[in-house]
Amino acid sequence: MRMPISAALRRLVLGLGALLAASAATQPAEAQELRDQYHQAPRDTVSQEVYDGWKQYNLNCARCHGEDVLGTTIAPHLLLSLKPDGPIGTKELFFQVVCAGRPDKGMPAWCALGMEPPTIEKIYSYVKSRSDSKVAPGRPAVRRTG
Predict the structure, then answer these.
(1) Are residues 107 and 64 in the same domain?
(2) Which domain holds residue 45?
């Protein structure tokens, strides 16, 4: 019995597709090309605290202060604000602003909304690392110990 050409072609294409998929799955992650700007490899390796701060910043702060702490039209970037001569140049001032907010400028009082000091500490670690140019823009990776 002869198989119609379209069925044979379909089997050939499916077989090649499966072969290519298996080949890509066995390549190391570094060898696989990234498809677009949203699937880039992390640029920096950071402590668990800084990584958790990055996550919390993105959950709670980025909508106003911008992705990568670069600001928006709603709220300023914090890179200069956390410099020693900036308006919130100390950890204590950062905690005060985040916890009590700045209602006159639209900054919510995060402690009243349930944010706890350990979370603020993590956010500070991330934002301060960005301000000190220790962490580049983009998603960091967690430094594995052990």
Answers:
(1) yes
(2) 38-142
